[in-house]
Amino acid sequence: MKKLLALNIAAVISVPAVADHNTINGMDFGPLAKLVGTWKSVETGGVDVSPGQEGTEVGKGGPAVTPFYEVMTFEVAADATNASDQYLVALYYKQEVFRKADDSKFHDQRGYFIYDQKNQIVYNSYCVPRTTCVTAEGPAGDTMTLVASKRGIAESEYMTDNATTTGFTMNISISDNTLTYSQTTGLEIYDSAFAHTDSSTLVKVE
């Protein structure tokens, strides 16, 4: 009997515990859990194509191509319940983007990646210091396409009159150590439509 008991105890001890890697601080972040930490561009960096400014080499509204590198940091923010029904968990993130040419920062973005487990939706809700904020959403997964919500764009009157954002789509792929995205921001600027694009691959560094 003692021998049998000892074998049973040994069997229980030897079974490895299955860790739930999506749960942080008691909250299930689904596919977003892998984002927590700091990410930096791979050596090749990313590319930004934006409307040129007046007086630049490409001219007003021309395609200004800017090679860049960036740092993104994600951390657990909080949970929230909308209208007594929609339970959400959120990661706060900051994104800082630098020109490869001179290491100057030309883009700063702060926002939240938000997960709705019940409805399997992910939101990217962010603001940039151009008086513009965007909320995009799409089906949750390791590879996602997030599109600006029906009322997902807010901006100042100046931006509405001079450089209004008409749409936003982000394609993002997340693995344990690699984050890849490409995105298009639709603009009406200088009396013309312009597709402002960004693409980059980052690796987790901590």
Q: How would you sum up this structure, described in words?
A:
- There is one protein chain.
- This protein is mainly β and 206 residues long.
- Helices cover 9% and strands 62% of the residues.
- It has two helices and 13 strands; from the N terminus they run H-E-E-E-E-E-E-E-E-E-E-H-E-E-E.
- It has helices spanning 2-14, 157-162; strands at residues 23-24, 27-28, 37-41, 46-51, 63-82, 86-99, 105-116, 121-128, 132-139, 143-155, 163-174, 178-189, 192-204.
- Strands 3, 4, 5, 6, 7, 8, 9, 10, 11, 12 and 13 form an eleven-stranded antiparallel β-sheet that branches. A two-stranded antiparallel ribbon has the order 1-2.
- A hairpin with a 2-residue loop joins strand 12 (178-189) and strand 13.
- The longest helix has 13 residues, at 2-14.
- The radius of gyration is 22 Å and the shape is globular.
- The protein starts with a helix and ends with a strand.
- Residues 1-18 have low confidence and may be disordered.
What is the topology?
Blueprint: H1 2-14, E1 23-24, E2 27-28, E3 37-41, E4 46-51, E5 63-82, E6 86-99, E7 105-116, E8 121-128, E9 132-139, E10 143-155, H2 157-162, E11 163-174, E12 178-189, E13 192-204
Antiparallel strand pairs: 1-2, 3-5, 3-13, 4-5, 4-13, 5-6, 6-7, 7-8, 8-9, 9-10, 10-11, 11-12, 12-13
